[in-house]
Amino acid sequence: MALLEIRNVTRRFGSFEAVKNVSFEVNAGEFFTLLGPSGCGKTTILRMIAGFDLPDEGSIVLDGVDLKDTPPEKRPIHTVFQSYALFPHMTVVDNVAFPLKMAGASAEDIRSKVKATLDLVHLSEKGDQFPHELSGGQKQRVALARSLVNRPRVLLLDEPLGALDAKLREQLQVELMSLQRDVGITFVFVTHSQAEALALSHRIAVMNAGRIEQLDEPSKIYGFPNNRFVADFIGNCNLLDATAADVQGDAVKLTSAGLGTITAPSRPGIKTGAKGVLALRPEMVRIAALGEPLDLVNRFHGKVREYVYVGDVTTYIVFLDNGQKIEALAPNAGSGRARFFETGDEVQVAWRHDAGHFVLD
Amino acid sequence: MKAASPWAKWIVGGPPFAFLLIFFALPGLIVVFASFMYPGEFGGLAKLLPLRGSEESGLTLENYQVFFSDWVYVQIFAKSFGVAALTTLICLIAGYPLAMLIARMPKKRRDLMVLLVILPFASNFLVRVYAWMIILGPFDLLFSRFAVIIGMVFVHLPFMILPLYTNLEKHDPVLLDAAQDLGANRWERFWKVTFPLSLPGIFSGAALVFIPVLGMFAIPEILGGANDWLVGNMIKESFLGTRDWPFGSMLSLMLTLAVLLVAAISTWFARGGFGRA
User: Fold this and answer.
1) Which sequence spans correspond to the domains of chain B?
2) Which distant-in-sequence residues (6+ apart) come within 8 Å of A259 by Cβ?
3) Which of A16, A360, B122, B187 would staple A276 via disulfide (CB 3.0–4.6 Å)?
4) CATH number at residue A207
């Protein structure tokens, strides 16, 4: 049985439906992520799990028990708030000891658990300091320690890395993952950053406008998006409008206006005449000089409009002859200075017959 | 930003500095000086240099000797401190819930409520105190310590509510969510989060009530019993009744010292209790 079940939950604010009949289950020990743009309802779901908000319809069940009559302070669920919400008048030790004191733990118990938890987040040295004396990353760790110290069944994290700079965020992502593995507590993580979600989660629920668009492992979400929204929201993606012209076993011939035929992998459910969009990741697209021989089925002529050099890779923005924009990612793996195609260069872009994912409308 | 030039500092700081020097520091010094003098024959102060065969002149410690030799002055001081402390406590207990309520209202409503809190200031202070005579008269409560406390609380309550509100309004509501999330019930959320964070507001509110009440003479005179004098009445009487300016100066100086002592003690508590400067 799943640890946490969200069953047909709907939440309305006036006439606005923030969460529309959402259901999912979170397993014990899982790192589960709700991912979506702001206003998609992910934070509302988090607040309902914590108990600060109640569903209008449906139920939230923990260990088989409906939580509707359990107030937040009685739920074995803790939240790491986006703004950390550390108590400014308490030292780090007092902040971390707070949930233990509320639970009526003995002084000895409090002392040893606070110490162990501060060790866990590498903050043993900072115990006597006040929150305003800490850096953003340290505050984040105190908030984590405070929420973990009395071992909740579920830890909710509301964009906990949002306020940190990029370098620190990456470092804390790694720490968060190993922390979750070490303590074995179920994490429900809310973020609008697809990179964070892909890096951290066991499973991701991609949300949009109050609904779950797709719920799956990160690699499935990235590689096989269910629909146009997921393809577009997760990572960079070329979206080519196309119609299935001919299904042949595990391949499908697509026709795209002004471009001709594209060969793409097929799957059950794709029928001749189906309209949709081919989701093609930039890293699947080769870019080559005009005369260069390429043993690839899908090959088109285009012109470089722009390129973005970011060190390890260069992203080229190429416009095909029909005006379709295609992004191609080229690794800068050669020795010596990277060689670029320049803006205005005529090039060919190409990709394998089994690349991309045809998403039906 | 460019560092302010020394000129700018003087232009900005100079006028208030001069104002305080002339209208605060200088009169203060005059009061200190006057408390060591003899009263003039018809009020005011006696001449410093002796005149032939006339009244006492020069400097003296007599005022202080009188103060410390008669138990009654210390008693009146103690009584005044008691009334001020009780008034402050009642204002705190009555004002805190209201300040909290206003601070948690929607922004638009808050401004209206604050306006209502300060609305009594639109009418004259004496008129408001006289109104209490009319209210309390029929109940036979007039001219008592009770009436004085009522008057004091009524007049000073806004001075408690406003700093409390200003403090409480700044509290991040997510802190209460966090406390609740971590297992604190309503009572614990108040005593562990809201109350300790509001201590600065409590201290400034308490100072704004305690200090003026200590020196207040109008309310005890109008609502209090005939002999229920406070320090304020004694000072007023020294200047306007017996016309003994030096004695009045001495009393007001002692009052100032007492207030400073209270302020120093409460500051010390405020810092020590928080563990931060």
Assistant:
1) 11-40+59-274
2) A240, A300, A320, A321, A322, A324
3) A360
4) 3.40.50.300
Same domain, A190 and A241: no
Domain residue limits at A160: 4-229
Distance from CA of B102 to the nearest CA of A (A): 22
Q: Is A96 on the interface with B (CB under 8 A)?
A: no
User: How many alpha carbons fall within 13 Å on the CB side of residue A12?
Assistant: 6
Q: Are residues A281 and A317 in the same domain?
A: yes
Q: How many domains are contained in chain A?
A: 2
What is the separation of C-alpha B2 from the centre of its chain, rounded to a whole number of angstroms?
40
Shared domain check, A155 and A93: yes
pLDDT at A260: 86
Give the 3-state secondary structure of A309-326. Answer: ECCCEEEEEEEECCCCEE
Query: Packing angle between helix B245-274 and helix B26-34, nearest 10 degrees?
Result: 120
B178: contact with A, CB 8 A cutoff: yes
pLDDT in tens, chain A (361 residues): 789 999 999 999 999 999 999 999 999 999 999 999 988 999 999 999 999 999 999 999 999 999 999 999 999 999 999 999 999 999 999 999 999 999 999 999 999 999 999 998 889 999 999 999 999 889 999 999 999 999 999 999 998 887 778 888 888 888 888 889 888 899 999 999 888 999 899 999 999 999 999 999 999 999 999 899 999 999 889 999 999 998 888 889 999 888 889 999 988 888 888 899 999 999 999 999 888 888 899 999 999 999 998 888 999 999 998 889 999 999 888 777 767 888 999 999 999 999 999 998 8
A203, A299: one domain = no
Residue A103 and residue B184: Cβ atoms within 8 Å? no
Answer whether B196 touches A (CB < 8 Å).
Answer: yes
Find chain B residues with C-beta within 8 A of A92's C-beta: none
pLDDT at residue B277 greater than cutoff 50 = no
Residue A191: the pLDDT is 92
| Cross-chain Cβ contact B174/A85 below 8 Å | yes
Alpha-carbon distance B179 to nearest alpha carbon in chain A (angstroms): 8
Residues A143 and A250 in one domain: no
CA distance linking residue B264 with residue B277, whole number of Å: 14
Contact of A162 with chain B, judged by CB distance below 8 Å, is answered with: no
**Chain B positions in Cβ-Cβ contact with residue A87 (cut-off 8 Å):** 175, 178-179, 192-193
Q: Are residues A223 and A240 in the same domain?
A: no
Cβ neighbour number for residue A38 with a 10 Å cutoff: 8
HSE, side-chain direction, 13 A CA sphere, residue A83:
11
Check which CATH number belongs to the domain holding A276 and give it.
Answer: 2.40.50.100
Complex prediction ipTM: 0.84
Same domain, A120 and A219: yes
Question: Quick check: B182 and A99 CB within 8 A?
Answer: yes
Q: Are residues A173 and A290 in the same domain?
A: no
CB of B272 within 8 Å of a chain A CB? The answer is no
Beta bridge partners of A26: A4
3-state secondary structure of B192: helix
Instruction: Please give the CATH number for the structural domain made up of B11-40+59-274.
Output: 1.10.3720.10
A69 touching chain B per CB within 8 A:
no
Q: Which residue's structure tokens are 């209008």?
A: A56
Query: Is some CB atom of chain A closer than 8 A to the CB atom of B183?
Result: yes
Query: Do residues A221 and A194 lie in contact, with contact meaning Cβ atoms separated by under 8 Å?
Result: no
Domain-terminating residue out of A190, A209, A229: A229
**Interface touch A73/B185, C-beta < 8 Å:** yes
Least CB–CB distance from A89: residue in B178, B185, B196: B196
**Among A188, A203, A229, where does a domain finish?**
A229
